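Tutorial handout. Part one gives the primary structure; part two gives the three-dimensional structure as tokens.
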Amino acid sequence: MSRRNDRREFLKQMGLLLAAGGVSSWWPQFRLLGQALAQTSSSDYRALVCVYLAGGNDAFNWLVPREINAYNVYRTTRGGVYDPQSNPTGLAIARDALLPIAPINGGDYGLHPSCPELKQLFDQGKLAFIANIGALIVPTTKAQYLNRSVPLPPELFSHNSQTTFWQIGHGDLRDPYGWGGELAARIATGAVAGRLSPCISIAGSTRYLMGPVWTPYQMGASGAVALTTSLPSGTPNATAVRNRRDQAVAELLALEYHHLFEREHQSVLRRSLEIYQEVSNALNADPPLSTAFPSENPLADQLKMVARMIRASRRPEIGHRRQIYFVSLGGFDTHDNQMVSTGQPRLLMRVSQALAAFQQALGEIGAEQQVVTFTLSEFARTLATNGNGTDHAWGTVQAVMGAPVIGGRIYGTYPVLDNDGAWTLSRGRVIPTLAVEQMASTLARWMGLATSELAAVFPNLGHFAPQSLPFLSL
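Part two.
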């Protein structure tokens, strides 16, 4: 019998019991009903968590070839091993400093020394990398790029345009919707119109979550954002002032308006206050997480809130079946001081520690099998140095994490990291061999998007084969 039928039979028998007057004998157990329903209703829950590395992560120092010939090419192209005294312009990481990983599907690679937690997740089969992926309209060779004989992504190497490209999943940058928001409009999220959106950002406004049905709900790393009025420091009777403000808002909401804009503003304000209360109540109903998240790590703070929201959202009070989250860490635009301890090493340390803590928290709340986390970043960096860092490039490496991920593998073809080679442009800008859509469509299908809907969300997907990657069982 299916879980749905089990639940239906359970409710049927409960109804018969109540009709027979058996409430008193069941009353000590009656409070368990909500827990039973929560377990059955959350069994089909799934969530995507997008971790955006803003600025363009130098991914070819995140995942590095260790095979000696490939490593030597990498070291030469990157100007030698970085040393603050003897080679301050070098971008390569010493081979023996890399954290070795042995992908199940072959190869010899190493992770940045700042990422021991990611190495552990990779070795456990909970993390995979997607190599040389980027913005493409159609598959593109170096000759086609140089001859401009195929359509190319608009405004390559631009932060704003390439951020938009990754987040909308195709090349029309005028599209107001992101592929996360489009996905939410086409699957059964379990969300109710006028209530909490299944698209939730802990990192402010993002195109990725905008869609034709749901407007993303923005909250902070500390919780839902309340209606506030800033008061000058030392304001006398501040509590009384805030109480008067709250009373004024209540009176405004009680008025009858005739103008369309006034009524809509009133409706939006009322829904916002109601959702704030709903989210706050749901979060406050749970004890603190026991998982230790690293301090002074803004990405960890955001992911901790995501874990709390996932725990709260699977209960009947919210009752979502599908959710899509967005978090972000900035600072990856490393034109200067990339190799110093406060540059990319600290950024990747924060990513590694935050992702590991989040995965542990998912296990704590019983959602490890229900969540897939993935990174996005607008591009990698030039393999050649600019003297003190790197500049904007193209193809990159992304990570996917979670118990559902077929991990311990590198998907795609890791490029030869030469300068101006068969798949690299001048200064070591790598031409991607996988498209954003191939990764995104795989995640979307795992969430329940029908194959027939893929072209509506990813209009260029038909140009690429395969249309999905095997890092998830579909």
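Part three, for discussion. The chain has 14 helices and 14 strands. Residues 48 and 324 are 5 Å apart (CA to CA).
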